[in-house]
Amino acid sequence: MKYIRYKKYEGDDWDSLDMEGLLDRLADFLLQSGFQSEYYRFSEMDGERTMDQLRQAVLDALMDGSMFSDEKIKEMLEKLQNMSPEQREQLADRLIARMEQEGYVSITDAPQPTQRQQQPGGRGAWGPETHAKFELTDKSLDFLGFKTLKDLLGSLGKSSFGRHDTRDLSTGIEASGASKKYEFGDTLNLDISGTLFRAVKRNGLKVPIEIEYEDLQVHQSEYQSSCATVLMLDCSHSMILYGEDRFTPAKRVALALSHLIRTQYPGDSLNLILFHDSAEEVPLSELARVMVGPYYTNTREGLRLARRILERQHKDMRQIIMITDGKPSALTLEDGRIYKNAFGLDPLVVSQTLEEVAKCKRAGILINTFMLASDYGLVNFVQKVTELCRGKAYFTTPYTLGQYLLMDYMNRKTRTIH
């Protein structure tokens, strides 16, 4: 696995600040779910970010001092404090320009470089009248996913991980078991010595050695299965209620899981579904922008969409990972209308949801549920889900969600694959 190494800033030139270090300090801001916004109750999946917000986040990261070494932190903080507000904005704009140049952010509706020079604030300044906005690039998402994954595995004491092992043997390239007689359809990874031995044993030692079809021996290797996963994220309003942001940690885990699959399990697939009043598939590239909203919890619609996606996947294992903190409280009716019950555990909603769980089981799809709440009614509902599909339920918190989820994914094993 490729590692990215960065260190604390130790020089005097602001332009030599490490952009990966800065991006790491901005992670909470870049992946925010709306929890910190005073208007979050009225935002519906609004991923719009302005340059003013990014500029302020950069200045907060600098004033925090964590980017500087212990020897330089006092000196650099004094320099920042001695700057005028205009000079600080210029510094932030210079760093943002570097982030754009190095491919970490994409700026839209921005003035041309010649126009930036003419605006108050000097080089790289985006005036408030430009209405410039920024978006994270794939490079930023890849780095944030890697950093989250590294932190999570570090806390588990894991330094390396491989593909999904099973108890079966196959005729692959990496030999790890005894050789076997060749059968039609096997990978022709010949065991030369075994093949020659069988030919000599049959005809005796003579030249040339006559090799027949029945003499062919092939190496066996451990069969490593592939897995198709749909990650279902609950983005209902309860994910940012009760004084706790539960959605941002879920987004971090999704990024880490995506990086893990892409780098260590290239044969696996990952799809992302957000469920609320309804449900929709979201590209992983848009994950950093999604936010919670004033939604109910339509678990059944999320499961239905996940099942349709997985039924198109030709993998040995198919599973749904559902992260939720609320009871099912919405249902899409046959005519397209959405039936809602704010109190949750409505008999109609629960029965229809459990019927969809049964369909997933019949399709050979496993459902693992990661609960971010311990409500008695929700616990009973999740227990019924796990009983129906023979999956697992994890009672966790936003702080331990990533550890539970990644360990469950990496430890997944298949008993028998025919």
> Unreliable segments (pLDDT under 50, ≥5 consecutive)?
37-47, 114-124, 158-176, 413-418
Describe the main β-sheet briefly. 6 strands, mixed
Instruction: State Rg.
Output: 27 Å
First-residue to last-residue Cα separation? 31 Å
* CATH superfamily (homologous) name of the largest domain: von Willebrand factor, type A domain
Structural class: alpha/beta
Please indicate the count of domains: 3
Strand content: 15-25%
Number of helices: 13
Query: What is the helical fraction, as a range of percent?
Result: 25-40%
Architecture (CATH level 2) name of the largest domain: 3-Layer(aba) Sandwich
Globally, the shape reads flat
Keywords:
disordered C terminus, three-stranded antiparallel sheet, Rossmann fold, about 425 residues, 13 helices, six-stranded mixed sheet
